[in-house]
Write a structure and sequence with these properties.
- This protein is mostly helical and 316 residues long.
- The protein has one domain.
- The protein is 72% helix and 0% strand.
- It has twelve helices and no strands.
- The N and C termini lie far apart (92 Å).
């Protein structure tokens, strides 16, 4: 159990880190989206080799053509290596910013809930740094291999595969990229779950963060869904700048865990509020309010009916 002075010191430290990270978070969201745009615009005019073009040499009776149908694609990548590397560098910077944003969230969560998963921070730190470094390194390696292909004399299918996917260098790079992305995604998802448990993130921001972690590991939707991670990083910039609509979640200002109420808690609170209202009105809790008593409006109606039935009768 943290003392009052420890909580006060932690809140002050977190506020300082949040202020310093707010502007980079805004920039990181923009850079993440920009990197996707740069890469997409660079590759949109790349030669496309369909199924028919790929099997055309075999249909013509040539098993191993001297010039692969994909040779033009490799040369295109080589000639556009600079913008592709620039896009990977921009994406790497955005991932570093994302890592810093997550580390603050993980540290704040662990202070409020010490039993949180201890591997979350190492996964985020290793995954974030590794993804940034490996993605840039992979693009540089691709530029070197495709350049060798372009200035060489072997344009066969084997040379194309070696330049794009196969070979020791490409294999090691692909495995490192898989491990790095898996670590970052797992760390981010764990960070979102922990932050929601202590109330540092609203539920929709936590769910959106989990979806962002999934997109980092499985980039489904292509460039279309890259706006989701970009939006989440930018939204965290708003939170860290203390410009969140409706104010900061209470867990930030209290220094303690303030979990968001579940639907069951909300129903219980609503029921308790209704019971208090009934108790204040003098009715029995759990019983409906009576609309008319024995001496109430029904009795008055009976007297009026009796009076009307007695009209026209004269006493003897």
């Amino acid at each position: 159990m943290s003392t009052t002075s420890e909580i006060s010191e932690q809140i002050s430290h977190e506020s300082d880190r949040r202020r310093r990270l707010s502007v980079p978070a805004f920039g990181g969201g923009a850079l993440y989206l920009l990197s996707g745009i740069v890469v997409a615009e660079t590759l949109k005019d790349a030669p496309k080799v369909g199924l028919l073009q790929g099997i055309e040499p075999a249909l013509s009776g040539v098993a191993n053509p001297t010039v692969s149908p994909r040779a033009a694609e490799v040369k295109f990548i080589s000639h556009h290596a600079v913008p592709l590397i620039a896009g990977s560098v921009v994406a790497g910077i955005a991932v570093v910013v994302l890592t810093l944003v997550l580390l603050l969230l993980v540290d704040a969560t662990r202070f409020r809930r010490p039993e949180s998963w201890s591997m979350t921070r190492p996964l985020v730190l290793f995954g974030g740094v590794a993804v940034a470094v490996v993605s840039i390194g992979h693009q540089v390696l691709s530029a070197i291999l495709t350049h060798r292909f372009s200035v060489g004399h072997d344009f066969s299918d084997h040379a194309v595969e070696f330049a794009l996917t196969r070979g020791t260098a490409n294999t090691i790079s692909n495995y490192l990229d898989l491990v790095a992305v898996l670590a970052l995604a797992a760390g981010m998802i764990a960070a979102m779950v922990g932050a929601m448990r202590v109330g540092l993130l609203t539920r929709w921001m936590g769910v959106l963060g989990i979806f962002t972690g999934v997109l980092i590991f499985l980039p489904i939707g292509g460039n279309t869904l890259e706006i989701v991670p970009a939006f989440w990083i930018t939204a965290m910039g708003m939170l860290y700048a203390e410009r969140w609509p409706g104010g900061d979640p209470p867990a930030w200002t209290s220094g303690e865990a303030r979990p968001w109420p579940t639907r069951a808690d909300q129903r219980a609170a609503s029921q308790a509020g209704g019971d208090k209202l009934l108790a204040g009105s003098g009715a029995n809790v759990g019983q409906p309010l009576a609309l008319g008593g024995a001496n109430g409006s029904s009795g008055k109606r009976k007297r009026r009916r009796g009076a009307r039935s007695g009209e026209g009768q004269r006493p003897e």
